[in-house]
Every structure is written in structure tokens, then in C-alpha cells.
Amino acid sequence: MDQRIINLFDEYTHKPLKRDDFFKRLTQLTGSTAAAMAVLPLLEVNYAHASTVKPNDERLTIENITYEGDGTQMKGYLARPAAPGNYPAVVVIHENRGINPHIEDVTRRVALAGFIALAPDALSPFGGTPTDAEQIRTYFGQLDAKKNLNNFVKAFDYLKSRKDCTGKTGCVGFCWGGAMANQLAVNVPSLNAAVAYYGRQADAADVPKIKAKLMLHYGALDERVNAGIPVYEEALKKAGIKYELYVYEGAQHAFNNDSAPTRYNEAVAKLAWERTIALFKKELGS
């Protein structure tokens, strides 16, 4: 697919670009309304592909939980191994689409690897993630940045309060959640490991606060996010932070999202995921 079309969709999903304006520009790029309509399903997510680990998998226990956030009750999707025992915990941070079948599936994947996996819903202050995509975009624009960060920080307090948690914690985030993973590395001193997939980097001035081991995954074609890599990496090196950074050739933004057909890259996603789980096993135990 024409890279200009993928870049336009990336702009639409990350900037305040109205759907009518997006579709008008898409029509210009494709040449006709009919062509734009044909391309649109290839760009938008299809959650029919988002169930690599079934919700009723007998190896897992699934819960819908709540915990105290910053002036709000936070909702979360939690999965853990069904076998009795204590496990380290991983916070899974969604993209700018909130909690959806794909993120629930990713949460189950983490749990299947031997962790308590919790995906908080950032839109809990609005009652949770709605089904309407435009409403989701509106709510994300209305989030209070400081309270939102605190809501995710408090997820670790909740996890450590559970009797089945060893106290070792990590996080993994994607896109919007990748940026949050970098912020949590700065703001949660007890965090053992943080993995950011194609997420905006933390401010260089905050890097010395990081105590966690970092793993950073980027798609080489993701020019918007990748622009921040050099300054971030320089700050990480200067501060002596332990990190691994991977830029995957030929990969788009959101290459891990198997419900986004034009951007998903199976080979890259598999390699990045293997590296992610290996990091968690090394830094958290399992």
C-alpha cells in the first residue's frame, strides 16, 4: 500500500484530524470515493483477528477488576495463570483506542507466559472505553495528563497488594501505551522492567530517574515516533541506564497489532514479542 496512505491514517489516529477531512484526503490519494472505500477496511482494525489466546483458555484465570485511581475508580482486565501460586506482574498499556479485544488478547498472552497481567482502562474516568471510535478519540483528548499518569502508577499499588503477586513488576505499552511505559519507567522507581513499542520517548531531563531495565521497539518506517530516538538514546547512555533498542527494517507503526492488517508485520511482531517475554522472565522471574 502507498506509504502516503498509511501515513495519513497514522495522522488521523494520532492528531485531531476530523474523519470527514481524513476521508477527503484519502479520496484524493486513492483517486476516487470508491477506491477510498475499498482501502478503508484495510486500514481500520478488525478484531476478528484478535484472539490468539481464547478468553476461555483453561490455562488462565480471567477477572474484570477495579482499583483506586486518582479520584476515580479504575477498571482493568486481568489475566493470570490458572495454576495456584505467586507470580510477578505486568501492566499492559493499550493504544489510543482503549481496552478492546486486541489488548485483552495481548494481556492473555502475557499471562500465558507466566505473569499476572493487568490492562487498566485509561478511559475509566468516563465510565470505560465506549464502542464508538469517534467518542474514544474525544475522551482521549479530554484526559487530565497528571491524573492519567497517576491512575497507571496506582496499578502497581493494586498489583502488589494481591497475595498472588511476588512484588516484581514490569509494564509493556503500545503506541499511546508505549509513551506511557516510558513515563512509568520515570515515575515508578520500583519498576523492574519497561517495554515500549513505538511510543513517544520520555523527556531527556527525566531519564536519570529511570531504575527499570528498558526495551524499546520501533518500526523503521515510523518517522513520526522515531524522530525522538536520538535524543532519548543519548540521554540513556549518558545516565547509564540499562536498555535495549531495536529498529525493525520495513516495519510500520503498530507492527505488533494483528488486528490492523496494513501495518501488522508477523515476523517482526514475533521477534519483538520473544524479546519482550525473555526480558520479563530475566528481570521479573516467572
UniProtKB/TrEMBL annotation:
PANTHER family: ALPHA_BETA-HYDROLASES SUPERFAMILY PROTEIN, CARBOXYMETHYLENEBUTENOLIDASE-RELATED. This is Dienelactone hydrolase family protein. Residues 74-283 form the Dienelactone hydrolase domain. The lineage of its organism: Bacteria, Pseudomonadati, Bacteroidota, Cytophagia, Cytophagales. It comes from the Bacteria. Pfam families: DLH. The keyword Hydrolase applies. It comes from Runella aurantiaca. GO terms for molecular function: hydrolase activity. Keywords: Hydrolase.
